[in-house]
Amino acid sequence: MIVTGRRKEKINALANELSEAYHVNVEVIIVELSDNVELEALVERINNLHIDTLINNAGFGINSTSTKRTLESKKRWCRYILFVL
């Protein structure tokens, strides 16, 4: 099992909980999915793995209205929605 996320402490805690509860090996990969470089590195790392089940719980929060966000912020949101979710 592989779990990914950007919050190292929370992901490690989840991995420990899953490992203990279900007696499985859990690999942790810390990654910021909204960062193109990190996303591409993750894809390269798992590209040749056989994945039986994928559970995607990624999200993207925005704390402002669309009119107050920069164009770069909007582009980043679109990339995230299209490629991660």
SSE map:
Elements: E1 2-5, H1 8-22, E2 27-30, H2 36-46, H3 71-83
Parallel strand pairs: 1-2
If you had to describe this structure to a student in words, what would you say it looks like?
The protein has three helices and two strands, in the order βαβαα. The chain is mostly helical and 85 residues long. It has one domain. Strands 1-2 form a two-stranded parallel sheet. α1 links the parallel β1 and β2. It is elongated, with a radius of gyration of 15 Å.
Strand content: 5-15%
Number of domains: 1
Number of helices: 3
Number of strands: 2
**By helix and strand content, what is the structural category?**
mainly alpha
Distance between the termini: 19 Å
How much helicity do the residues have? 40-55%
Radius of gyration, in Å, reads 15 Å
Q: Output mean pLDDT.
A: 83
* Order of secondary-structure elements: EHEHH
Instruction: Trace the largest sheet across and list its strands.
Output: 1-2
Principal-axes shape call: elongated
**Uncertain regions: pLDDT < 50 for 5+ in a row?**
none
Largest sheet: 2 strands, parallel
Brief summary of the model shown:
This protein is about 45% helix and about 10% strand. With about 80 residues, it is mainly alpha-helical. Strand 1, helix 1 and strand 2 form a beta-alpha-beta unit.
List keywords for this structure.
46% helix, 3 helices, 85 residues, mainly alpha, 2 strands, two-stranded parallel sheet, elongated
